Amino acid sequence: MEEKKKWPNANQYKWQRSLTLTKSEGAIMDEILSRYNCPNISQFCKKLVYEDIILSTPEGVYTNDNAALKVRLAECEHIITKCGDTLAECERTIADIKKKLNP
């Protein structure tokens, strides 16, 4: 008696493409995957397909599409947060240096 497989044959339903990047492009892609909490490129693509991640259009091409506007808003908020974190870190460093210079 032949043992029945528990899982269906993935080849019957999967869509597959390959991806090759340079090492520097791969490093950038790893950063993008991390930013969107994706362990791999497949999970990132699934988030795109199911619109958990929405790609923005190039600057100046925006319409009144709420989704595109929300994406742009999120991008700007992310940039501001990163700048705020950097500013706070610099302020702490300046304070530490001043303490060392003027004990």
Compact overview of the structure:
The chain is mainly alpha-helical.
Explain what you see.
This protein has 103 residues and is mainly α. Helix content is 56%, strand content 0%. It has helices at 23-35, 41-49, 66-101. The termini are far apart. The model has no long low-confidence stretch (mean pLDDT 81).
Task: Write the topology of this structure.
Blueprint (H helix, E strand, L loop, with lengths): L22 H13 L5 H9 L16 H36 L2
Core attributes:
103 residues; mainly alpha; 3 helices
Radius of gyration: 22 Å
What's the mean pLDDT score? 81
Q: Quick one: how many beta strands?
A: 0
Tell me the distance between the termini. 84 Å
Helix content: 55-70%
Q: What portion of the residues fall into strands of 2 or more residues?
A: under 5%
Derived structural class: mainly alpha
Write down the secondary-structure element order.
HHH
Number of helices: 3
The major beta sheet can be summarized as: none
Spans of at least 5 consecutive residues with low confidence: none
- Form type: elongated
